[in-house]
TrEMBL record:
<dbReference type="GO" id="GO:0005730">
    <property type="term" value="C:nucleolus"/>
</dbReference>
<protein>
    <submittedName>
        <fullName>Protein FAM32A</fullName>
    </submittedName>
</protein>
<dbReference type="InterPro" id="IPR013865">
    <property type="entry name" value="FAM32A"/>
</dbReference>
<keyword id="KW-0175">Coiled coil</keyword>
<comment type="similarity">
    <text>Belongs to the FAM32 family.</text>
</comment>
<feature type="coiled-coil region">
    <location>
        <begin position="45"/>
        <end position="86"/>
    </location>
</feature>
<dbReference type="Pfam" id="PF08555">
    <property type="entry name" value="FAM32A"/>
</dbReference>
């Protein structure tokens, strides 16, 4: 398809593809070049082998010290730790027996057996408005009292 462009210099005939490529003719391609930066990119630091060996030695020393600490416990302390580990294993096994759904059902049954004394009280709207009105009145009274606008005399 041939297109024609009209300009100050006259009418010109152009291809549609040539018109599209002309739009990008003035753009500079390639990556951005920064001054003072080498084109090598980011280089990773190499780990030193000597430090790795030192770390292994330190870890071994810490493990040896931990073993020494474990050996200084009394027989009663060792027995206590064994009983604690046994109880913890039993608790884990008991929890693993039930699925989440079963635990939720048990909790719902327990909540159903509770009395409604502990439930959230449900007031009609008229009572709610009455309590809000009393609450606001108490706040206004206490602010007036703080300002010294009200003098309270109580005799009983």
């Amino acid at each position: 398809m041939r297109t024609y462009t009209v300009s100050v210099y006259g009418v010109r005939e152009r291809d549609e593809l040539a018109a599209m490529s002309d739009a990008y003719a003035e753009c500079v391609g390639g990556s951005l070049k920064l001054k003072g930066v080498s084109s090598g990119g980011v280089k990773k630091k190499k780990k030193k082998k000597s430090k790795a060996e030192e770390v292994v030695e330190v870890v071994e020393k810490v493990e040896e010290k931990a073993e020494e600490v474990k050996n200084t416990r009394t027989s009663a302390e060792k027995a206590y730790a064994a009983v604690q580990a046994k109880r913890q294993k039993q608790k884990v096994l008991e929890k693993a027996k039930k699925t989440h759904k079963q635990r939720v059902e048990e909790m719902n049954k327990y909540l159903d057996t509770l009395t409604e004394h502990f439930d959230i009280p449900k007031f009609p709207l008229s009572f709610q408005l009455l309590y809000i009105h009393k609450f606001r009145a108490n706040i206004m009274y206490s602010t007036k009292l703080a300002r010294g606008e009200v003098h309270v005399v109580r005799s009983w």
